[in-house]
Amino acid sequence: MMGMAPPGGAPKAGAAKGGMGRGPNPKLQLASLVAKLDLLTGKPPTIQLTEEERKRVQEQLQGLDAAEDLPEEDAKKRLDALLELLKGHRETLELVGFRWPTQGGPSSFSAPPEVKNPFKEEKNAKPLSALRSRLGQPAGK
User: Fold this and answer.
1) Vertex 117: Cα angle to 110 and 84 (nearest 5)
2) What is the pLDDT of residue 115?
3) Exposed, middle or buried, 18 (CB in 10 Å: 0-12/13-18/19+)?
4) How far apart are CA 108 and CA 100, in angstroms?
5) In which band, very low, low, confident or very high, does the pLDDT at 1 lie, cut at 50, 70 and 90?
6) How far is residue 118's CA from residue 63's CA, in Å, rounded to a whole number?
7) Is the predicted pLDDT of residue 125 greater than 50, yes or no?
8) Cα 98 to Cα 95: distance, rounded to the nearest angstrom
9) By CB distance 3.0 to 4.6 Å, which of 18, 40, 93, 116 could disulfide with 98?
10) Residues 8-47 pLDDT 10s
C-alpha cells in the first residue's frame, strides 16, 4: 500500500506524513467559534461592584500611570490585591479572556522586561482612564 494516492487523487503538495502541517483543527475552531458566539449573543458579561469593591479597586488604580517606571513588586502587590478582591467575579473575568494566574506556580504571562510602565502606552492608558471614570475617580489620580 506504500506510495498509493489517497482516494480522490494525489496527496496535496507540501503535506507531511501523518497529517502534520494541516493547519488549525476544524473541530477546535468550530468549538471556539460556538463559544464566542454564545458569549457575544448572550447577556453581556458585566461585573457589578459593591461600593466597598469600587473603593478598593480605585485604591489599586491610583497612581498607576503617574510614574515613568512601574516596579514589578508594586505591580505584583496591586495585582494580588485586585485578584483577592475580585475572586468572586473570576468566572466573568475568565469569560472575557482574562487568564487567572495559577496558584502556587509562576504566572502564565509576564511583560517584556523593557516595558517600564504599561499604563504609559495608549492601549493600556485608555482602559485605565475609562475604568476610573466608571468608578467615579478622576483620570490621572
Assistant:
1) 60
2) 81
3) exposed
4) 9
5) very low
6) 13
7) yes
8) 7
9) 93
10) 555 555 555 555 667 787 888 888 888 888 778 887 889 9
- Report how far residue 59's alpha carbon sits from residue 36's, in angstroms, rounded to the nearest whole number: 33
DSSP state for residue 1 in the 8-state scheme: -
Q: What is the pLDDT of residues 36-54, one digit of tens each?
A: 887 788 878 899 999 999 9
- C-beta neighbour count of 61 within 10 angstroms: 19
Could you tell me the pTM of the whole model? 0.65
Distance (Å) of CA 38 to CA 42, 45, 48, 80? 6, 11, 21, 30
For 66, phi and psi rounded to 5 degrees? -80, -45
DSSP H/E element including 29 = helix 26-41
Which class for 57: exposed (0-12), middle (13-18), buried (19 or more C-beta within 10 A)?
buried
- Give the DSSP H or E segment for 69: none
Report d(CA 103, CA 88) in Å as an integer. Answer: 16
Compute CA distances 18 → 3, 5, 13, 26, whole Å.
Answer: 14, 14, 14, 17
Cell 475568565 locates to 94
- Identify whether the C-beta of residue 132 lies closer than 8 Å to the C-beta of residue 58: yes
Computed over every residue of the chain, the mean pLDDT equals 80
